[in-house]
Specification:
By secondary structure, the chain is mainly alpha-helical. Helix content is about 60%, strand content about 10%. It contains eleven helices and three strands, in the order H-H-H-H-H-H-H-H-H-H-E-E-E-H. A three-stranded antiparallel sheet has the order 1-2-3, covered by helices on one side. Helix 4 packs across helix 7 (about 120-140) and helix 10 (about 165-175) packs across helix 11 (about 220-235). It starts with a helix and ends with a helix.
């Protein structure tokens, strides 16, 4: 037991978490929260001692703060548009990208059996720690520092998040890379009253691959249809 505690102590301070506090411009009052939010269950399966509970909390705090920020910024946007913008900002892929910029995986406390060279493992760990860090900051200092962290290291990159979420643009690029004709986007139908229209878009690739999606705008439906096509391309 003593050896395990010494080993945990060594793992935590070897990576020098004070460097992380400097990176995120926040100093923890309760250092144990910082330790827990960086600890993977492979090192400590105790739910009180690994990041999973903090990840759960951080996810909720993140949704709340991003939703409120979008609500205040885009005063004329409808629910569908706000939901789409929020999804771009809080999706795991983008959180992992932001975590990578902070090099969060460097501070992760894991068992050596966890293969961090595996891209999928590293991707999941990055995204999870980003959320658990939000949860830890919220518990340690409250909503204000959590907001500051999310604004500085996520919301300020909103344009990048939206660009990453441009499925139509990505699909056109993939077609170019594969040397095939660009996809065509055709409006199949427009249903509903003026204030609540539903667009059905048909995306066709190479005349025989057809993807159909609905949305509250032509653009939204095109994005959804493009996403379906990209899933087949495994992008």
């Amino acid at each position: 037991m003593i050896f395990k505690r010494l080993k945990s102590f060594f793992y935590f301070f070897f990576s020098n978490p004070t460097d992380l506090e400097q990176k995120i411009n926040y100093t923890f009052t309760n250092k144990s929260l910082l330790e827990v939010c960086l600890t993977h269950k492979s090192l400590n399966p105790n739910p009180q001692k690994n990041y999973e509970r903090l990840e759960f909390l951080g996810d909720a705090v993140l949704d709340h703060i991003v939703s409120e920020w979008l609500f205040n910024k885009y005063r004329n946007a409808d629910e569908g548009n706000l939901t789409q913008k929020r999804a771009a900002l809080v999706k795991k892929q983008f959180l992992a990208k932001m975590a990578k910029k902070l090099d969060l995986i460097k501070f992760a406390r894991t068992n050596t059996s966890l293969n961090l060279k595996n891209q999928k493992v590293a991707y999941n760990l990055n995204g999870n720690i980003f959320e658990s860090l939000i949860g830890a900051i919220f518990l340690d200092g409250g909503m204000k520092p959590a907001e500051e962290f999310i604004f500085s290291f996520l919301i300020l990159h909103e344009d990048e998040a939206i660009s990453d979420d441009n499925y139509k643009g990505k699909l056109i690029e993939i077609c170019q890379e594969k040397g095939i004709n660009p996809p065509s986007f055709n409006v199949q139908s427009i249903e509903g009253p003026d204030h609540d229209k539903v667009f059905t878009i048909e995306t066709i690739i190479q005349k025989n691959k057809i993807y159909i999606a609905k949305g509250k705008s032509k653009k939204e439906a095109e994005q959804k249809a493009s996403k379906l096509a990209l899933e087949e391309f495994k992008v």
